[in-house]
Amino acid sequence: MDMTWYNGDFLSLILLAVVQGFAEWVPVSSSSQIEIVSHLIGYQSSLFLEVALHFGTLMAVFVYFGKEIMDILRDVFSGNWKSEEAKLGFAVIIAAIPAGIAGFFLKGFLESNGGLGLVACGLGITSMILFIGSISPKKDEKFSYGKALLIGVAQILALFRGVSRSGSTIVTGLLLGLSEKNAVKFSFLLSIPIIFGANLLNLGNKTLPSSLFFASLVSFAVGISTIHFSFKYLLSDRKNLKWFAWFTLIEAIVIGGWVIFGKQ
After folding, report:
1. What residue ranges do the domains of the chain occupy?
2. Which residues touch 251 (CB under 8 Å, ≥6 apart)?
3. What is the pLDDT of residues 18-31, one digit of tens each?
């Protein structure tokens, strides 16, 4: 397998695939972790590689929630729109709209404004969001399209480097009265149209090189394991959010200091 196309070595590629597979399903901002690790190992990532890694994690959520997704599609296309599965499907679509519109219009701005300084700021924001979520009152209220829309609006924050998509959507769900299970499940399902749409927008009419298949495979394998562990254990209790809050806060301080003192 020819690895010269990646401007890096094979081990760097595997490391980034592992980081993506894990970080996508915990509230630490996977794009930030990829950027940080790439910077540390001196690896020049590419748009094609980012798309390949996200494709792997997208397939992971498809497989893990395969039954739920098939139930949603069955009821939506059969016209059984009053079922809980169909309502969940429509809620995902509604929640995806705000970030989809914002991402389309902000694409140029977001691409031209980056760097570790903004990553540090975004991680600091993520930390605050997670601390709030960890102490939010425990409820289990009924889901609604209005709540789905508010979660979708919160997802716009994740367009900016360092702000965790899963963190912002899960915490918003918790603050709106959802149980941990429902908030996490909805956040993970919401990743499907967002990741798919972002990859489609980034890729355009280009096709991924077949040599990136292994990166997608590693990202998929790590991703599906992490989804299970997060859904069943890590994120099943909102109090655990504080550990990710401390992690992102420490990262923000270290990276911010690195940038300020000219070590970037």
Report:
1. 4-260
2. 28, 32, 36, 120, 123
3. 999 999 999 999 99
